[in-house]
Amino acid sequence: MRETPIRKELVDKAIADYGIQDFAKATIREVKAVAAFAEQQSGVEFIKMEMGIPGLPAAQVGVEAQIQALRDGIANSYPDIQGYPELKRQASRFVKAFIGVDISPEGCVPTVGSMQGTFASLLLCSQADPKKDTVLFIDPGFPVQKMQLQVMGVKLESFDLYGYRGDRLAPKLKSYLEKGNICAILYSNPNNPSWVCLTEEELSAIGSLANEHDVVVLEDLAYFAMDFRQDLSTPFQPPYQPTVARYTDNYVLLISGSKAFSYAGERIAVACIGDKLFHRHYDALSKRYEGLPFGMVFSTRILYALSSGTSHSAQYALAAIMKAACDGAYDFRKEVGVYGERAKKLKDIFLRHGFHIVYDQDMGKPIADGFYFTIGYKGMTSGQLARELMYYGVSAICLITTGSQQEGLRVCTSFIRDNQYELLEQRMEIFEENNQ
Hints:
This protein is of the alpha/beta class. It is built from 16 helices and 15 strands.
């Protein structure tokens, strides 16, 4: 047995001190805290793969627009609860340019990151029909979205997409929807963490079932257009970002500034509510909110109660970013392409040393290289592998925390630095030797 870069006793003590009883279920923040403690105590550099934080500079066009807005005095003014009009116009244009769908500026509502957009959407959907009190997750997914339902006291159901691709998806969905208690379906596309991408055929099936069972689809586009296997970078020309919005009117698209534009720190996103859904009246909502339709409840009641609007200057930033992208002056896809390059290098290192890619296929094709990928190791559970890698100065979260039923870890490429590929290679050589 070769000595590990970090003493096992140090990591095990940190896990115990943080009160983590099952490391397989450790949250992102808990894994981050253990890694930070072990790094500080040992003096050994950690290769941090647990946090999905952008590792690129923020879009400069947004930074400049936000600074100018602040200089012009915008900070002393409350934003309109419906959103900065220019952002609403540019968001509508952006959806047309890169998704190929028409949506009114009225339905494009800025939120404090997609986290707030998701929270508001989930809360609203859970109140729209008293008979429908449960949200269905197509997993794996972002763990905090389930935490949001825990905070609200709203029920959830979920299933792992792993065994239900293509023609198998519709029957699986239907088995949940025909119970009559599902108010909304939530998924991410590309998927966090598996990086599989739902096809137009699968999205058509979701949209058709949403129509049949009168369910709202919440499409989390946090990793907008980041399927690097196809060029989605040319505005107003196909191919477009795949979307359920082509197949149902019951949708909310959650478009974040965090990953695609590296604007995470300003907490800015847009929730794009389909025109018909925006103006739809639900009896339960009308009774509760003085006759207001779905879209107005979203903004003038729920968002108003949550935050009284979204950072005024950040709205100017996102408006400028979206305008530049639509005008062809800013190629955001080119900027974030580095994540795919990092993923390929990292995968090669892990595969050389006995690891396997858990979600390795996407409808019969190799999985795309992107912001995330998944790894497993023969004979090890998720918790065992996560803890073992900590001894080698590598931190990642377990797939079980994302709703996956597979054994393995989520790896994020965003924080990887050029000097760390060689470091990872060296450490995985020792790992392989010690775990043969």
